[in-house]
Amino acid sequence: MKFRIGHGLDIHAFSAGNHVMLGGVRIPHDRGVDAHSDGDVALHALSDALLGAAALGDIGRHFSPTDDRWKDADSRDLLRQVSTMLKHKGWMPVNVDLTVICQSPKIVPYAEKMQLAIASDLGLEVDDVSIKATTTEGLGFSGRGEGITAQAIVLIQSW
Length: 159
Description:
Elements: E1 3-15, E2 19-22, E3 25-28, E4 32-33, H1 41-53, H2 59-62, H3 75-88, E5 91-101, H4 111-122, E6 129-134, H5 140-143, E7 147-158
Parallel strand pairs: 5-6
Antiparallel strand pairs: 1-4, 1-7, 2-3, 5-7
Helix pairs in contact: 1-3, 3-4
């Protein structure tokens, strides 16, 4: 049995709107995000981490933002497709550690729903999915409320 670790990062600027998608959960917010798909930075970072761990490239290679097929795409659908790609290469996720970086919206009230969505999409137990959040203490683009970032670390194993 082999194990691999992957890391993913995604960033989106805020734009007009009334919600953000994070971890597959719609969260009310005074703005949306500027994105080709639904702009779920958490699931995009997670997809990149999984693809990277399996040496399958990145999310842009498989779901290009210049391809109209992915316009307004549901990032949960993309994550499930990534999971299928891993299975075809003989890999499966073991655990997920995800950090959302933003001043707002507050993540804690939605963390459990995010865990449930991700666990369901990846075939994991809820306890195998960690959701954390942090602010930048008012520093940088995130601290100024200009955008949102997520980082993901995953462990995958061969089967």
